[in-house]
């Protein structure tokens, strides 16, 4: 279970494939961040719609 | 035990709320372990070099893209056969996460393919059928939301999702049926052709993706339930309490 890389610089360089490796991992991270934001926004919208419905009823 | 207890949206709403946080925590812990194994411990591949490390996210996301579609189609079948409300909501909740995993599988495959094959994209059977899967998810979501009456959207989109299931064996067996550029499977029931830490990293990352998909689906289904049931008394009592 020893670490394969000699140093952090060695790790980030990914044997010269840094661009391809980090573009891949970065895309997954970005996708998860975007989904999390969208999920929160959707829940917020749903709760707002319920609030609106309740206010409308209170007016009538 | 009442098997239908949790098939009611109002009771499932609470259950989903309780199950989502532990799913995300488990996903994070597994991701940390999997990344440590895959990016830290596993040796660099002698032929491909370090770019092979993309497989630790490429393979799990590709597996999840197909598995989630299958689960979504099962919920769609329940919707059509039993006309249950929660199954349609679950299918709607799975689709965006499935599409996300499909996109990431295609993207990571492209960035692995450029240094390895010399191209980001080829119209190869495996790549093309996976792209069709992405369009099936988009088509499902568009059709589900195309009707004024959501129940009609449920049924129409369910039919599309079920027909689309034929694409799953095409994706899976494409590397055997056609002479594709994409390699065959390295993991099978007969054994594997890779280093043990590589396999362990890939499996741990797959469980992490699985837990994340469960968490995201549960959070989304709660939002879908609120959208669809906003006129129900139990939803009104939620905020008032």
Structure description:
Chain A has 60 residues and is mostly helical. Chain A has helices at residues 8-13, 18-59. Chain A has one domain. Chain B is an all-alpha fold and 241 residues long. Chain B has a two-stranded antiparallel ribbon with strand order 1-2. In chain B, helix 2 packs across helix 5 (150-164) and helix 3 (85-117) crosses helix 5 (150-164). The model of chain B has no long low-confidence stretch (mean pLDDT 92). Chains A and B meet through helix 2 of A and helix 1, helix 2, helix 3, helix 7 and helix 8 of B.
Regarding quaternary structure, how should these chains be classified? heterodimer
Distance between the termini of chain B: 29 Å
Order of helices and strands of chain A: HH
Strand order of the largest sheet of chain B: 1-2
Largest protein interface? A-B, 32 and 41 residues
| Percent in strands of chain A | under 5%
| Class derived from helix and strand content of chain A | mainly alpha
Overall shape of chain A: it is rod-shaped
In the predicted model, the low-confidence regions of chain B spanning at least 5 consecutive residues are none
When the domains of chain A are counted, the total is 1
Count of DSSP H/I helices of chain A: 2
Q: What average pLDDT do the residues of chain A reach? A: 93
Strand elements of chain A, count: 0
Percent strand of chain B equals under 5%
Low-confidence stretches of chain A: none
Largest sheet of chain A: none
| Radius of gyration of chain A (Å) | 23 Å
Question: Could you name the key traits of this structure?
Answer:
heterodimer; A: 60 residues; mainly alpha; 2 helices; 0% strand; rod-shaped; B: 241 residues; two-stranded antiparallel ribbon; 2 strands; 75% helix; globular
